[in-house]
Amino acid sequence: MKSTFKWLSLAMFSFSLTVAVAQVPEQVNPSNDDFPDFTKMGSGSKPSTTSKPQTSSSTTTNSSNTGGAVSNQQPVKIEPVENKGNAPRDPDAPLDGIVENKTILEKEVLPWEPVREADIMWRKRIWRVIDVREKLNLPFMYPEETFISILLKGVQDTVNGIKAYRTDDDKFSYKLTSQEVSTMGSSVDTIQQVDPVTYETKLKIVVNKLNPEDIKRFRIKEEWFFDKQYSTLKVRILGIAPLKDETDEAGNFLYEKALFWVRYPDCREYLARHKVFMEGNDANPMSWEDLFELRRFSSYVYKESNVMNRRLQDYMQGMDLLLEGEKIKQEIFNFEHDLWSY
């Protein structure tokens, strides 16, 4: 009797265990659409458990409006923020300082004295390079207004701006439009973006504008001549060209490229209206025209007029190149010095 009861108890326990295992539901990874949308249901409606296909939408339901109910977890569309960097200046902006600075704006630019061809008994054309990373040239990279930004604004101004010329030659033969200058130096990249909803890979074209920090050097074209009417050695800057380093995809240097040329005699009036940051007395500001006329910059000789029309780097490298540039400077100094007897 006891053995029969023990056998029945064991059989009933095995049957109940089998039924319990059969009733365990299969584990499924829930998605956003497997949850019922309580925000669209009334007080007497029943939640729907049928899943809906995923759809891309840019709107979401705010759970705070439904008393803390669960909302559709759909991606939020991020609107691009407008860049206020180029916004026009407020005409009613307060004065930044104790007095209004009018010295630069009202300063009169002195014209160059006329020179006759018959009075030039000697002249030599020199090309120089200004490296803005040198200590004396740091004003070229003043963060509030870099020199390249001043040039770009002047070229893009069609009313009171300055003219830009192509770099096919440095003779100012071919004029550039403001649109060509604005797109010059910019690059176009193609990147891949993954849609967070559909997981599709899309190609997006990104236009990278010219970064002022990429301009590390400027090329200067000038002429040294001896005026026998005044018996003095003079120099006149003829043109300025910003230089940009071109690199490959890995960031390795390829070559140096001149973006455009501006004729310095034509932009003297424009440069005289822009202030240069100089340490010392802020009450006596200096303009960019003053900086070039007083030659308050550091540079090295890049090329001189020669029969082969070669640059120094075409036949010299390293320290020899710098020494050859200093030799050209010394020759100009010695020419003036040897004209006089002491």
UniProtKB/TrEMBL annotation:
InterPro entries: Gliding_motility_assoc_GldN
Signal peptide range: 1-22
Alphabetical keyword list: Signal
Ranges of Low complexity composition bias in the record: 42-68
Pfam families for the chain: GldN
Top-level lineage group: Eukaryota
Region called Disordered, residue ranges: 28-76
Name the record gives this protein: Gliding motility protein GldN
